[in-house]
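Postdoc handover notes: sequence design on the structure in folder B. Input tokens:
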């Protein structure tokens, strides 16, 4: 499936505009990570784009989140690598591949970066720095839903936390207009 068709599918299944923006943010960070790590950028970006395809349906039943999405994507012909990453990001199966690990670490990172942008005096991504995000990262109460331990798993990809945040921030700054930030 190409990106345009995937985006149409998402817009048909996901009703929350903020969730769609989150999926776009994860897509762009996954693309940047793949490029940095020498992986297939289109494949990694697609996994990021579709990773929460089932969220509207499973938001009240977290045990199903990721499983329902993976099954739906499998039925549409998505390959095992992407469907596995979708299921693994929700913690239902072990994270074994680099794609699994990248999606797992990236998912909460995007939320942390968005929260940092909203707290920044400019209220835009363009002026947020890695240092600003790192300072917010250290504040336990700030963006409490952005699991710091999960973000730190970027080290399993051979990236320091600073590098990971820099890659994610730069990628999201590149689509700041699309994200409304």
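Designed sequence:
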């Amino acid at each position: 499936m190409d990106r345009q068709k995937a985006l149409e599918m998402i817009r048909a299944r996901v009703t929350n505009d903020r969730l769609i923006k989150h999926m776009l943010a994860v897509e762009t960070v996954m693309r940047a990570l793949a490029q940095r790590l020498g992986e297939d950028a289109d494949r990694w970006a697609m996994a990021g784009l579709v990773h929460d395809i089932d969220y509207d349906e499973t938001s009240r039943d977290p045990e199903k989140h990721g499983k329902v999405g993976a099954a739906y994507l499998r039925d549409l012909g998505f390959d095992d690598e992407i469907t596995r990453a979708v299921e693994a990001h929700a913690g239902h199966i072990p994270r074994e591949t680099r794609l699994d690990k990248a999606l797992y670490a990236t998912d909460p990172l995007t939320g942390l970066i968005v929260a940092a942008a909203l707290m920044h005096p400019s209220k835009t991504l363009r002026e947020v720095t890695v240092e600003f995000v790192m300072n917010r990262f250290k504040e336990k109460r700030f963006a409490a839903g952005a699991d710091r331990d999960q973000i730190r798993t970027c080290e399993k990809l051979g990236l320091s936390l600073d590098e990971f945040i820099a890659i994610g921030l730069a990628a999201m700054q590149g689509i700041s207009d699309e994200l409304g930030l």
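Context for whoever picks this up: Residues 3-179 form a domain with the Hypothetical protein af1432 fold (CATH 1.10.3210). Don't rerun without checking with the PI first.
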